[in-house]
Amino acid sequence: MRAHIARTVAVLIPIALFTAGCGSEQAGGARSPASKDRAREVAAAWDGSRAAEVWRAGYYPLADVVQLPEHAFRNDEDKSAYAAENYVLDAELPAASPKKGKVEWESGSSLSLHLMDARKAYDSVARGGNEGPHLTVTAVKLGRTTLVTSRGPATVPAWLFTLDGYDTPLKRVALEPSVLPGSPIEPLEDATDDLMELQQLVAVDRDGRTVTVLAGHGACDDGADVQVRETAGSVVLSASILGATDGDCMAQLLFQKVTVKLKRELGDRVLLDAFTGAPIAQRRIPT
Fold first, then answer.
1. Is the CB of residue 257 less than 8 Å from the CB of residue 202?
2. DSSP line for 43-107
3. CB 103 within 8 A of CB 153
4. What's this model's pTM, rounded to 2 decimal places?
């Protein structure tokens, strides 16, 4: 591993405000044979595995479980409040709610899961607490929303938080994802410029062919690159660093949103990180 990689992970800084993209395994920067071999190994381990069966039977969101009101945001203060997760609760949280909620896929299949109560849902979005700008919640009720999942678009229960100044609510999906299956292949031990761990899944668009992920890189290179290997049962993403050079470099880890286009719809194929050999997790990062 090149020396500067170890130094660049020492300090985290905010997400870089730009997006790069590439469309296939051949697009973008040149890839090492080892990186391509790893993607093939990960795909071979997952395709037809018991872990893949568990994935296809579960509920895994592939988009943010918090959905903004229409026309958000009114101003920079509201945007800052959302990013800082600063809220004021000027409403009663429902004390009672159903124990179970149902995921209903467009295919006609469904799955019942434990329903998150209103308090937990609110606490999951209102994790701030500084004295800066804030958003005021004026009403809370249980409703439904749609989002992209590992089994395609689905309708799911959601807590609807009415915000002062907005005509439509902020929605927080009221179901936790299913437990991820154990990977049939071990993660790699060391990152290199040619293959690094992806930070997170940002979203899969409703078209099923546009995937955005968060990838890391250093302060002294040309940014992150993500390549795709598609099979009938999986899509493996391999993250690397472009234009990295040896030598001293400021200790920073920059985050970059990278969008890739798939040759065909993701469907119920497993979306995998070549470095970890595991499904790419969807975690909330306010933008």
1. yes
2. HHHHTT-HHHHHHHHS--BSS-SEEPPTT--SSHHHHHHHHHT-EEE-SPPPS---SEEEEEETT
3. no
4. 0.82
| Residue 246: per-residue pLDDT | 64
| Eight-class DSSP state of 226 | E
Query: In angstroms, rounded to a whole number, what is the distance separating the alpha carbons of residues 42 and 275?
Result: 9
DSSP state at residue 38? H
Question: What b/e sequence results for 215-230 when a residue is b if at least 16 CB atoms lie within 10 Å of its CB, and e otherwise?
Answer: bbbbebbebbbbbbbb
126-173: pLDDT as tens digits: 999 888 999 999 999 999 999 999 999 999 999 999 999 999 999 999
Q: What is the mean pLDDT of the chain?
A: 86
Containing H/E element for 213?
strand 210-217
For residue 70, the tally of other CB atoms under 10 A from its CB is 9
Distance CA 251, CA 102 (A): 46
Structure tokens at 58: 């579960």
Determine contact, residues 158/172, Cβ cutoff 8 Å. Answer: yes
Structure tokens belonging to residue 29 = 């920067």
110: left (phi over 0), alpha (psi -120 to 50) or beta: beta
